[in-house]
């Protein structure tokens, strides 16, 4: 007799309540193996591929791509005994009939338990003495091999295959992925395919639907549902802005010595192949300055009515990605050398831009740096990330007239801004920290005095 199991949407990171289905990697009738990737979902923190913890035959996809699903809700049904050959355990051994706790957990660490549908006992066989907790049953047809139930067809008649950054690009340009034919291996849709469609030079599978893209020709407006990273970012920023009393201070510094030192490092054998940027120096400066002013690396615990001082720096780096703003962390950044920081920052930003940052990589930060200078912006008033007490903003480094020894010269000048939680950090501590960071960036040699 076939045995059906529901595969639930797992909680892929602490605190998640829902996720958007991006793309199915299987269809009804497919045979899957243990830990095979079956679906790609987008949470408020990252795009995640979910493996299935059982082998069997997929019988039904319960949700369509694009739908938002709550954690724990079933999204797929699988027949784990498609041949119907397994016999039920005898009455004397009821424990064998019950699904073991470990069997109901995904094998790669995703947390939600599966909802299991047990087989009905054959006629003439005694029912087990101890029954498992009442499962959510899927009523199978009374035949040896039930016909798979076809899921509702997505728009365009197929599930477009595209990575999260490409999906984000398509949304921004108003391109319907369901109407495109991917040119990469396996029919995967690429950025070039999306740009070609946006420019009207693609050979789509069908006409691009203005309804599907959210564009209304009558109003000349495009509406995009608030989901995923954008939704989470908005909620976090509102919470922070209306919970922590923000104070922002500014400092303009001459970083010509830092830029000259950077050029020397590029030519050194030790830093060969290592990408050293102004952000690298800022990261090191923040870690050093935080040791002298630990208040900026502390956090206000409202529930416990305590200020928690952290003896480590998990440095958040705000990164603009095709999926929106994400803030992955460099763990124990204060224990790293300048070279180690440079390597860690390069890896972190590369992964973020590819849309592959894991949810775990964005948890537990203590202080954050945001770099608006890469967009040519001079400065800003950043909002503190929830769970932290300070955020440093780097502006653009520009050639600027500057007084040096009584003479006006053209120098490399940078504007810094620091927002901090005034419940934790007083004006004196915030000013001292910003001054320390500025001094370290203005002259990296100052670091040897710390």
TrEMBL record:
A Pfam family this protein belongs to? Answer: Biotin_lipoyl
Q: Does the keyword Phosphoprotein apply?
A: no
**Record-level GO cellular component terms:** cytoplasm
Q: What keyword terms does UniProt attach to this protein?
A: Acyltransferase, Lipoyl, Pyruvate, Transferase
Q: Which coenzyme or cofactor does it need?
A: (R)-lipoate
Location of the Peripheral subunit-binding (PSBD) domain: 161-198
GO terms for molecular function, please? acetyltransferase activity; lipoic acid binding
Q: Tell me where the transmembrane regions lie.
A: none
Q: Which domain of life is it from?
A: Bacteria
Q: Which residues form the Lipoyl-binding domain?
A: 1-79
Q: What is its EC number?
A: 2.3.1.-
- InterPro entries referenced in this protein's UniProt entry, alphabetically: 2-oxoA_DH_lipoyl-BS, 2-oxoacid_DH_actylTfrase, 2-oxoacid_DH_E2_comp, Biotin_lipoyl, CAT-like_dom_sf, E3-bd_dom_sf, PSBD, Single_hybrid_motif
Q: Does the keyword Acetylation apply?
A: no
Which family does this protein fall into? Belongs to the 2-oxoacid dehydrogenase family.
The protein in question is named: Dihydrolipoamide acetyltransferase component of pyruvate dehydrogenase complex
Species of the source = Amycolatopsis azurea DSM 43854
């Amino acid at each position: 007799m076939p045995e059906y199991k529901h595969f639930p949407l797992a909680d892929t990171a602490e605190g998640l309540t829902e996720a958007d289905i991006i793309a199915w990697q299987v269809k009804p009738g497919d045979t899957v193996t243990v830990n095979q990737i079956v679906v790609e979902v987008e949470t408020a923190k990252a795009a995640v591929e979910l493996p299935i913890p059982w082998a069997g035959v997929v019988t039904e996809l319960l949700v369509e791509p694009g739908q938002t699903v709550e954690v724990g809700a079933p999204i797929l049904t699988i027949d784990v005994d498609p041949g119907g050959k397994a016999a039920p355990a005898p009455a004397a051994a009821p424990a064998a009939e019950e699904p073991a706790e470990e069997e109901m957990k995904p094998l790669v660490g995703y947390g939600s338990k599966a909802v299991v549908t047990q087989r009905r006992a054959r006629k003439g066989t005694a029912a087990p003495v101890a029954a498992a907790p009442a499962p959510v049953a899927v009523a199978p047809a009374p035949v040896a091999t039930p016909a798979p139930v076809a899921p509702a067809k997505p728009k365009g008649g197929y599930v477009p295959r595209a990575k999260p950054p490409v999906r984000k690009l398509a949304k921004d340009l108003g391109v319907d992925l369901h109407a495109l034919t991917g040119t990469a291996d396996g029919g995967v849709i690429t950025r070039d395919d999306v740009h070609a469609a946006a420019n009207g030079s693609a050979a789509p599978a069908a006409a691009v639907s203005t309804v599907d893209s959210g564009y209304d020709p009558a109003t000349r407006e495009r509406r995009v549902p608030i989901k995923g990273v954008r939704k989470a970012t908005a909620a976090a920023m509102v919470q922070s802005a209306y919970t922590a009393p923000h104070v922002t201070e500014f400092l303009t510094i001459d970083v010509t010595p830092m830029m000259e030192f950077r050029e020397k490092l590029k030519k050194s054998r030790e830093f060969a192949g290592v990408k050293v940027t102004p952000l690298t120096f800022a990261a090191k400066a923040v870690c050093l300055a935080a040791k002298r002013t630990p208040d900026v690396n502390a956090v206000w615990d409202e529930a416990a009515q305590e200020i928690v001082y952290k003896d480590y720096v998990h440095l958040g780096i705000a990164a603009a990605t095709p999926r929106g703003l994400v803030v992955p962390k460099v763990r124990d950044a204060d224990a790293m050398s300048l070279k180690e920081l440079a390597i860690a920052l390069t890896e972190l930003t590369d992964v973020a831009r590819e849309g592959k940052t894991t949810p775990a990589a964005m948890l537990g930060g203590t202080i954050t740096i945001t770099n608006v200078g890469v967009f040519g912006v001079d400065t800003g008033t950043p909002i503190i990330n929830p769970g932290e007490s300070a955020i440093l903003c780097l502006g653009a480094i520009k050639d600027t007239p500057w007084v040096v020894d009584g003479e006006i010269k053209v120098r490399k000048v940078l504007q810094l801004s620091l927002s901090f939680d005034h419940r934790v950090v007083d004006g004196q501590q915030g000013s001292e920290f910003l001054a320390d960071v500025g001094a370290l960036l203005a002259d990296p040699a100052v670091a040897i005095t710390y």
